[in-house]
Amino acid sequence: MNQKNSLGLNNCFLDLDDPFELFKTWMEEAKKSELNDPNAVALATSDKNNYPSVRMVLLKDFNKNGFIFYTNLNSQKGNELKENPKAAMCFHWKSILRQIRISGTVSLVEDKVADVYYNSRGYESRIGAWASNQSEKLDNRDQLINSIEKYKKKYDDENKVPRPSHWSGWNLSPLNFEFWLDGDNRIHERLKYTKNDNGDWIRFLLSP
Fold this sequence. Notes:
By secondary structure, the protein is an alpha+beta fold.
């Protein structure tokens, strides 16, 4: 049986013109074997002076329009994305020896989309969105604990905790995908998709 696709890559790369479909297939494979958070992704941003920073976030949704994650809009990443609305993601799944890199532009999700996700979170997480001034300096840990208790008193009905205006979701709309498979002797397999000026996806191989 032929174990390669039309480009000579492992058949896990399939033969798809749409990178979103390949991403979906690989994510489903990762869900079967990755012990913790297969949706964990390294998110890279940079500020207006082009200084980069990276951290792990959780992908909460994806569709043909892009990849969605949520955060405090006044956090470091929130401020950097407002200053420079370009970002990159890297998924790495050790259990299946695969990696996906995605880069593109970001935009805020609609309020109704953010509301739906926010209201699906647990009570403590919704309170935390109010209580934590994410990325700002804390004088001590008690300062945060006291803030949590303050907002629990303010919003003591677990069914009535409004979404803070400073908390929402970002959508990364891809311009590039790179799918990577570990290879023997570091001869890895790499497949890149790039969106052209007509909005079509062009795929090609990369040297390891």
